[in-house]
UniProtKB/TrEMBL annotation:
<dbReference type="Pfam" id="PF01904">
    <property type="entry name" value="DUF72"/>
</dbReference>
<dbReference type="InterPro" id="IPR002763">
    <property type="entry name" value="DUF72"/>
</dbReference>
<dbReference type="InterPro" id="IPR036520">
    <property type="entry name" value="UPF0759_sf"/>
</dbReference>
<protein>
    <submittedName>
        <fullName>DUF72 domain-containing protein</fullName>
    </submittedName>
</protein>
Amino acid sequence: MVLLAQIRLKLYVGSSGWVYSWNPDGLEWYARESGFNAVELNMSFYSFPRQSTVVKWLEESGGLRWAVKVHRSITHIRRLNERAVPLWEKFRKVFAPLEERIDFYLFQLPPSATFTGEMKDRLRAFARLCDKIAVEPRHASWFREEVVAFFQENSIYFVTPDSPLFEGLPKLGAVNVNGVVYVRMHGRLVWYNYGYLDEELEEVARKVVEAGPERAYIFFNNNHDMLGDGRRIIEIFSEKYGVKLA
């Protein structure tokens, strides 16, 4: 049992992108009115933005903290091999104006990527290039204690998916690596088109607190319900644990 007086948690909550039906006026509205203090950039998985666009985001986003999803040519096509490195360097250069606001570069792995010696070598190589790498696996072979130990040893942040893959969080719970928990909320019965029940949000909040991180990032990737669900989990952290947004 975690005592309220023992909780020292910096909480960051946001959504995966901001161009949705619930947002009437883009990133400026998101930063001003959503009630969130972080955002996960999703479009960068599909295309490299112009650096002028990144500068505009910096100007519009206020004090938001960022997680930037890495382009699929790096994670899915070249699968972090040697030929992915020049692309990664190009990608990183594009985001240089926003670098001080970026807490993570999100590497979402393809579902076919299993935890192998070869993949471990590739992740080590990228971890030497950047200390902000957060990896979201999509194959069950990654959700074991020995994998968490590997991430811990190599200072790679582990992204815990709340998804239909596990009908919620995996049995490991919210994974804490180097004082950080990073959870992506995709939905439970179905991917993306899903509204969370209060008891499900309470379960996630409890498991995050039980993991004992210094910082926790929770990003909602469930489309039309992400604004309401994100605001609700902020209320739950406040009501049950006395934890406010950082």
